[in-house]
Amino acid sequence: MSNHKVCSVRDNINFVKTASFYELYSLFKSLKTSKGRFILVLGSPGTGKSANVYQALSMIDLHIYDAFLFIDMDSKPGDVFRIFWDTLKEDMEAKTRKETFKKAGEYDLILFADPFLDSEFIDSDKVGLGLWTEENGPSTFPFYLKVFWEYIKHYKDLKNINVVAQTAWIFKFRGVRYDILTDFSYLSKILVFLLNRLFEVVLISYTTEEMIEIVKSQCETDNNGEIEKYIRKYGKKPRFIFEALEKEKK
Predict the structure, then answer these.
(1) Which residues, listed in sequence order, are joined to residue 176 by a DSSP beta bridge?
(2) Which of 47, 126, 140, 152 is deepest in the core (most CB within 10 A)?
(3) Is residue 1 domain-resident?
(4) Are 50 and 238 within 8 A, CB to CB?
(5) 3-class SS of residue 160
(6) CA pair distance 233, 70, nearest whole angstrom
(7) Which of 79-83, 134-138, 220-224 has the lowest mean pLDDT?
């Protein structure tokens, strides 16, 4: 089966620009002339967060650091935190964390997207932060506490850095992946409201009309009724609909 996961702009084919895309593009464009911004890109699994992020960035002349992380599934939180910093320092040719922050400020934005969260699609022997968190559950919490403490300690340094991060809070139920930040009605709305108080938030979502256009752009079908059937079954999640249509062909 084809891999419908987008890990770079090269993976975007026949991209359809939606209202969510234009909101994201507008925010990214403003990063050229500002610092100290922290943008969270939210969306259910399969919605197309990566596709929107990389397409928007491809249209703007920004100096980007696309962060990456390769860890093992059984890595402990302390090990992940160490690997995270060692990777950044080595790649930026910095000797200390303070120097890493300084070099990060030389970029228009630091991006935490698929090479960081879903690096298992790049190297099958390793995993990214997203799958590691999903599979290890609450035991990963100390890592995020360490990151939060680091944020507090280096708050002044972060005023010179723009950060864009794809974000999801995933758990599995009966084999289906759900995102607490987007899939649970009022609970999700409350959580996104709170996040909006701290960060700039863009939610990747689509109208039914946008979804039909997206599916038509990638698949050989003009049957709106058939596409709406898949939308009712899989939700407005392009990747899952593409995979279902591909299975049906075989």
Answers:
(1) 173
(2) 47
(3) no
(4) no
(5) coil
(6) 34
(7) 220-224
- Shared domain for 246 and 132, answered yes or no, is no
- Looking at the structure of the chain, the number of domains it has is 2
Q: At 216, which helix (H) or strand (E)? A: helix 208-218
**How far apart are alpha carbons 103 and 80 in whole angstroms?**
22
Range of the domain at 40: 9-205
Residues 126 and 224 in one domain: no
Nearest to 5 by CA among 107, 97, 109, 130: 130
CATH of the domain at 23: 3.40.50
Report the alpha-carbon distance of residue 18 to residue 118 in Å, rounded. Answer: 24
Cα–Cα distance, 14 to 237 (Å, whole number): 16
Structure confidence at residue 226 as a pLDDT band (50, 70, 90): confident
Q: Which of 4-13, 88-97, 152-161 has the highest mean pLDDT?
A: 88-97
pLDDT tier, 2 (very low <50, low <70, confident <90, very high otherwise) = very low
pTM of the model: 0.87
